[in-house]
Design a protein that fits this description.
This protein has about 100 residues and is α+β, with helices and mostly antiparallel strands. The chain has 2 domains: about 55 residues, no CATH class; about 35 residues, no CATH class. Helices cover about 35% and strands about 25% of the residues. It contains 4 helices and 3 strands. Strands 1-3-2 form a 3-stranded antiparallel sheet, with no helix packed on it. A hairpin with a 5-residue loop joins strand 2 and strand 3. The chain starts with 10 loop residues before the first helix and ends with a helix.
Length: about 100
Amino acid sequence: MEGYPKHLNSKQDYYYVVEHFSREQWEKDWEALREDAKVWINIGVINSGEEGIVNDAHKVYTQVEKDNTETRYQYALVDNEHSLMKQLGITEEEINAVLNAA
């Protein structure tokens, strides 16, 4: 293989670049594994008079309809079962270990 790979398609590919290339080259790819590890899902409409939950794992989204009425939705941050990280069998602990290594 010449130069940094254009695609990393397996867990072995990710570890290969760590061993054979500079951190500046592979760090962005390892960080990207985290990006789709969690997703926001709509868990329902918030009824009038209710506040909704807002914290690190919950948010409220307000949608303005064409008739200028507002509908508020509760969202929750959940694990993405279809994330690249899960598809490759890489854990968050592995990512942290690689990125925290000196």
